[in-house]
Design brief:
The structure is a homodimer of 439-residue chains. Chain A is built from 13 helices and 15 strands. In chain A, helix 7 crosses helix 8 and helix 9 packs across helix 11. The interface between A and B is large, with 90 and 91 residues.
C-alpha cells in the first residue's frame, strides 16, 4: 500500500476513534482499556484494617492521589520488592523495615504522581519526613510506617503537600475504603484493580482483599506495580513472607507489558490476625497451603488485571511453553516471546505470524531444536516438528487472532520444563502514551 | 490532554504527513528514512568479484529480488552468523561450508522476499537445489556456493523461480553491480546500504567494498541482516576469519532496532587476493592491523546505516556507557537503555526523560550504585551522583532532544568498563510496519 493511501486510511481510522472518544471515559479523559473487567469487584473489609484517601495535589489535580492504610496492633507485614539496582528511597526503606517483627501495628502511606526515585539525599529525606509525620500522628514507631511513591522519576517529592493532608486522612479512616484506595494509587492506569477471596481455615472464614496499580514499565522483578493485600488470617511473619515470595514468583513475576522494570515497586501483605483461628507458623502445613492457594488466586487475578491495563493493550495473551530442558529454559522462551516487539505488533495486527514466534524461541538463549518445535494458537496446531502443520490453514489462524484473549503454546519437545507468562499486544496507543512529554 | 483533543491533534499531524508523502519516495511507495545518507556512496569494484541481479518474483513484483556474486579462483571466504537456536537452513549450510579452505573460487546467491526459515526438510532441499544449480552453472564445487534468504519466515521458498533466472544472472555478471546488489537484497529497507574504503598495504592500494540489508528484527547476535563485503586483499582464511569475528563484535553486534534477532542472518567476507601485496597470515601483524581497522570502518558504517533505516526511526541514538565494573557490565547497561521501549518512545517524543534511563540502568542486571550514577545528553550533564545536576535546566535537555542525532552518556563510576551501542527511537511507523498483515 502506498504511503499516501496508508495515511488516508489512518486518518479515517482516527476519525472513527474520535467518535468513540465521546463515549463515557475515566475522570481524566482516558478511555478505559477494552480488556478491563466489567465491574470493580466487591472487596470485603478486613478486620483490623482501615483506609482513607484524599487529594494532596502532588502532581495531578481533580483526583485523589494519596492513600493511608492503618493496621491494628498485632498485625504482621511481609513484602517483595523490585530487584532494580536503582531502587527508590521508599523501596530501600521498606526493605529494611519489613524484616522487623514489630507487632505494634503498621501504616502504609502511598502517593501517586511522583515516584521519589533518583532524587538522592532529598528522596531519603522525604521518606523520613513522611514516616516521622505518620508515626507521630498515629503513635506508631517510625519503623512500622511504610511509604510508596509512584509516578515521575527524578523529580523531588513535594512531601509537605502529603503531610498537610495527614489530619484529614486519619479522620477519614474506614474499613470500607478499599476501592477508593485502588483509585488513589493509579497513574496511567485506566481502571482501578482489586481482588478478593474468602475461604475457611479450621472452620473459620478468612478473607484476603487486595488492590494494585500498574499499566506500563511492567516486567518481572516487580515492574511499575504497587500492590497492597490485607488479610485477617493469623500467620507468623516468616511463614507469611515465605508464602508471599512464592506466590509473587508465580504471579507478578510472570507478567510483562513492555519488558521495562520500575525502580519503585513493591507488594506489601499485611495480616491482622483478627480471624479466630490457630496461628499458622509452618508454611508447609495444611492451613498454610490453603492460605497460600487463596493468596495465589488473588495475586494472579491482580497480576492479570495489570496486564489487561497494559498501556495501549487490546489483546490479553497467555504464552505457555512446555517440553523445555528446564523450567528456567521454558521461562526464557516464554519471556522472549512475550517481550518481542515483532510478536506483539503481529498480535496487534491480528496476523497469525508464527514465524516471529520461531524467531523469539531462537533468540531466547534457551536450548531449542528447530525440527522438534511445535506451535499452537489456542486449540489450533500451527507448526509441528519444525514446519507448518499439515492440518493448518492460514485462515483458521487469522480467524483465531481476532479474539481478544489469546493463547500461544510452544512445545520444545526436549524435556519436562514448563512456564506460563502473560502479556498484551503493542499498539499505537502505547506509543501515544509514552511519547507524550513526561508521562 | 483529553482523548478527543489528542485525536484531533493526531489527525492534524497526519494530514501534514500526507502532504510530505507526495514527495519523492522509493519505487515501492515507501518514504525513505529521514536518517538515510544523502547519496549511495561510490563503491569501487573489487578485482576478482563480479555481480548480477534480476527480478525472480520470489514474492515481490516490480523489483529485483535476487543477486549473484562470483569470486574468482584463489578467493577465500570468512563468515559470522546469527546465534539464534532456530537458524535457517541456509545459515546452517553456510556455517558448514565456511570452515572449508577451498580456493576454487566461490559464489554467493541471495534472495529477498522469503527467508526459507522454519521450513523443515523442504528448506534444506531448497538450499541444496540452489547450491547444485549454481555449482553446475559456474563449474564450482557445491561446497563453495553460499546462499542466503531474507523475508517471511515459515513459508516454503519457491526456489525454482530463482533457478529459472540463473542463466540471466550469469550472463549479466559485472564488477560494477554493487549498488544494484544492495537494492536486490532489500526487504523493509527504505534505502540501499553500501560502504567502501581504500588504503595502502606495502605501498599497494587495497579496497574493501560492502553492502548490507536490514531495518527490523535487528539486535546483537546478528539480527535481520545480510552483509556481503569484498576485498582484493591477500589474506589467509584463518586470519580473515579472526579479523571478521572481532570487527563483527564491534559493529553489527553493537546495534539494536527492536531487540529481536533473526533466524537468517550472516556476514560474509570474501578476499580475492588480487591486490599485489604479501599475504597476511598473522592477524596480529602490522598489515593485518591496517586491514582490520579499514574493515572495521566499513562494517561500522554499514551497521550505522542499518540503524538509520530502523523501522520507523526518526532519531539516531548513540548510547555510551563508562565506569562499569567490566566491559560486559557496560554492554548490559547500554543494551538495556537501547532496547527499552520506554526510553525509545521518550526519544521519539523528544522528551528528555532521564528517569527512564535510570530505570533501564536499574533493570540491566549490571552492578550499579544509584548515588554514583551520572547521565548526560550530548554535552549536557543531566544527572550527577544520583540526582539532577545543579547546572541542568530542563529546557536545555528539551532543546537537545530535538536533534536528529543524539548521544546518551552514562557514567557508573564503579570501574573502567565501557561500551558503546547504537539504536533508534520507537515510533508509530514501527507499529504501522509491523502490524501490517505478514510483513
Amino acid at each position: 500500500m502506498g504511503a499516501k493511501k496508508k495515511l488516508k486510511k489512518k486518518i479515517k481510522a482516527l476519525k472513527a476513534q474520535l467518535k468513540t472518544a465521546a463515549q463515557p471515559a475515566q475522570g481524566n479523559g482516558v478511555l478505559v482499556s477494552p480488556l478491563a473487567p466489567v465491574d470493580f469487584p466487591d472487596l470485603p473489609a478486613i478486620k483490623g484494617v482501615r483506609l482513607a484517601t484524599t487529594a494532596a495535589g502532588v502532581r495531578y489535580s481533580g483526583r485523589t492521589d494519596v492513600m493511608l492504610a492503618v493496621l491494628d496492633p498485632g498485625s504482621v507485614v511481609a513484602g517483595t520488592f523490585t530487584r532494580s539496582a536503582t531502587r527508590s528511597a521508599s523501596v530501600l526503606d521498606a526493605q529494611t523495615k519489613i524484616a522487623g517483627d514489630g507487632t505494634e501495628g503498621a501504616a502504609i502511606l502511598v502517593n501517586s504522581g511522583n515516584a521519589n526515585a533518583f532524587t538522592g539525599a532529598a528522596g531519603v529525606a522525604s521518606v523520613n519526613a513522611l514516616s516521622a509525620a505518620v508515626s507521630q500522628k498515629l503513635g506508631l514507631p517510625a519503623t512500622r510506617v511504610f511509604t510508596s511513591s509512584t509516578g515521575v522519576i527524578g523529580e523531588p517529592l513535594p512531601h509537605d503537600r502529603i503531610i498537610a493532608v495527614l489530619d484529614e486522612l486519619t479522620v477519614g479512616l474506614s474499613g470500607a475504603a478499599l476501592q477508593d484506595a485502588a483509585r488513589a494509587i493509579m497513574t496511567t492506569d485506566t481502571f482501578p484493580k482489586g481482588s478478593s477471596t474468602t475461604f475457611e481455615i479450621a472452620g473459620e472464614t478468612v478473607t484476603i482483599s487486595g488492590i494494585a496499580k500498574g499499566s506500563g514499565m511492567v516486567a518481572p522483578d516487580m515492574a511499575t506495580m504497587l500492590v497492597y493485600i490485607f488479610t485477617d488470617a493469623k500467620i507468623a511473619r516468616p511463614a507469611l513472607q515465605s508464602m508471599l515470595s512464592q506466590q509473587t514468583d508465580r504471579s507478578f513475576n510472570c507478567i510483562t507489558v513492555d519488558s521495562d522494570t520500575s525502580t519503585s515497586d513493591m507488594v506489601l501483605l499485611g495480616a491482622t490476625g483478627q480471624a479466630d483461628m490457630p496461628v499458622i507458623d509452618d508454611a508447609t502445613s495444611e492451613a498454610a497451603r490453603a492460605f497460600s492457594d487463596a493468596l495465589g488466586k488473588v495475586m494472579l487475578d491482580l497480576a492479570h488485571q495489570v496486564v489487561r491495563d497494559g498501556e495501549g493493550a487490546t489483546k490479553f495473551v497467555e504464552v505457555s511453553v512446555s517440553g523445555a530442558r528446564s523450567d528456567a529454559d521454558a521461562r526464557k522462551v516464554a519471556m522472549a516471546i512475550a517481550n518481542s516487539p515483532l510478536v506483539k505488533t503481529a498480535i496487534a495486527g491480528e496476523d497469525p505470524n508464527w514465524g516471529r514466534i520461531v524467531m523469539a524461541v531462537g533468540k531466547s538463549g534457551a536450548e531449542a531444536d528447530r525440527d522438534r518445535l511445535s506451535i499452537r494458537f489456542g486449540p489450533h496446531l500451527v507448526a509441528f516438528q519444525g514446519q507448518v502443520a499439515p492440518s493448518y490453514a492460514e485462515q483458521v489462524g487469522a480467524e483465531y487472532m481476532r479474539q481478544q484473549e489469546l493463547v500461544i503454546g510452544v512445545d520444545l519437545r526436549l524435556g519436562v520444563g514448563a512456564a506460563t507468562v502473560w502479556t498484551c499486544d503493542l499498539t499505537h496507543r502505547y506509543i501515544d502514551i509514552n511519547t507524550d512529554y513526561r508521562s
